[in-house]
């Protein structure tokens, strides 16, 4: 799946992203650390609120953190490098689904939190593009509404 995920447009072959695999016994440890950080920022939160937060982080046995490491370059804009990291996230979702797994691309507060970045060992300038949660589907996902193409597609006529 990672090989498929890594097969994305990458102007200049910079590989402006990397993977952090969070699975096995470390998966539960990671969730506990996230919950410690969350509780430190939400001291007045009820136990019910904490359980809702935990359920967002604790559903899948494997999480792949896709890290964007876009950097200034004389020929390749940072924006293109960031888009490449986003394409990695989407390819990983497609690869997991094609292999029969359920997968979800999440960000939320952990993707933007400095303490979580330190926990994961992110370097200066690195950012979380997404946490890809991968597991066995418990049930078929409910299809959500998609945009009406007529409202977002125009033909350029010069």
From TrEMBL:
InterPro entries referenced in this protein's UniProt entry, alphabetically: NAD(P)H_nitroreductase (IPR052530), Nitroreductase (IPR029479), Nitroreductase-like (IPR000415), YdjA-like (IPR026021)
Positions in coiled-coil regions: none
Domain of life: Bacteria
Cofactor binding remark: Binds 1 FMN per subunit.
Pfam families referenced in this protein's UniProt entry, alphabetically: Nitroreductase (PF00881)
Residue ranges constituting the Nitroreductase domain according to the UniProt record: 2-135
Signal peptide: none
Binding positions (FMN): 7, 11, 105-107
One MF annotation (Gene Ontology) recorded for this entry: oxidoreductase activity
Cofactors required: FMN
Family: Belongs to the nitroreductase family.
Record's protein name: Nitroreductase
Species of the source: Tepidamorphus gemmatus
């Amino acid at each position: 799946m990672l090989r498929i995920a890594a097969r994305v447009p990458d102007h200049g072959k910079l590989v402006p992203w990397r993977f952090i695999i969070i699975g096995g016994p470390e998966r539960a440890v990671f969730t506990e650390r996230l919950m410690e950080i969350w509780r430190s920022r939400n001291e007045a939160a009820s136990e019910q609120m904490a359980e809702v937060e935990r359920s967002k982080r604790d559903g899948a046995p494997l999480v792949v953190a896709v890290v964007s490491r876009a950097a200034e370059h004389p020929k390749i804009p940072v924006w293109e490098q960031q888009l490449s990291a986003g394409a990695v996230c989407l390819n990983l979702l497609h690869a997991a689904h094609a292999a029969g797994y359920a997968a979800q691309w999440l960000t939320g507060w952990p993707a933007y939190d400095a303490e979580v970045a330190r926990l994961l060992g992110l370097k200066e300038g690195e950012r979380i593009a997404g946490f890809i949660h991968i597991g066995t589907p418990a049930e078929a996902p409910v299809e959500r509404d998609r945009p009406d193409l007529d409202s977002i597609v125009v033909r350029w006529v010069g």
